[in-house]
Prior knowledge:
Chain A is mostly beta strands. Helices cover 0% and strands 56% of the residues of chain A. By secondary structure, chain B is mainly β.
Amino acid sequence: SQTIHQWPATLVQPVGSPLSLECTVEGTSNPNLYWYRQAAGRGLQLLFYSVGIGQISSEVPQNLSASRPQDRQFILSSKKLLLSDSGFYLCAWSAAGFSYNSPLHFGNGTRLTVT
Amino acid sequence: GDSVTQMEGPVTLSEEAFLTINCTYTATGYPSLFWYVQYPGEGLQLLLKATKADDKGSNKGFEATYRKETTSFHLEKGSVQVSDSAVYFCALSGYGGATNKLIFGTGTLLAVQP
Lengths: 115, 114
């Protein structure tokens, strides 16, 4: 069966510090991968998605970047965190290929607090 | 552009009460519709989905019907339990391409009291 791992679960970082959040998927090949952010009291905002190694699409211009160095690894980074980067970050995967019916499968999220 | 609108929460109910969480959408084309649930401190889990008009998705006693004429996908459950307390998100499959990018509503917090 497929599983998705996301870490760390919680993170407190000072403003201006770097960020690296990692997500890995097991049990499937060539998944589509996604990073979402859930700000307090708001819905989910799609940040990045990837259909393959090295292929990253950004949905919203911001202080963050994403990379996919391996087929089932997705990394969210920042060189200098801002207070507004605080939130709950969720990694997700869906089956390869294009389908309106494919659900997303989410990790347990990382709660980031920038102080 | 495509969007999802959910009823504001929180929704507070007593155990065994009937639940309705409203969801309406705006979309070009024929999206699939989803309900996800997020338990405290966790990620989202798919609860149910419907892929075409008049389809009814159901799972764990929850159900929702894809109504194209009213562009709605309301979530219902006949008798809620304390364990149903969570945030519920309505979503639609977004614009095309090689991925399934979901557009989410803002979520509705459900609190069920014993």
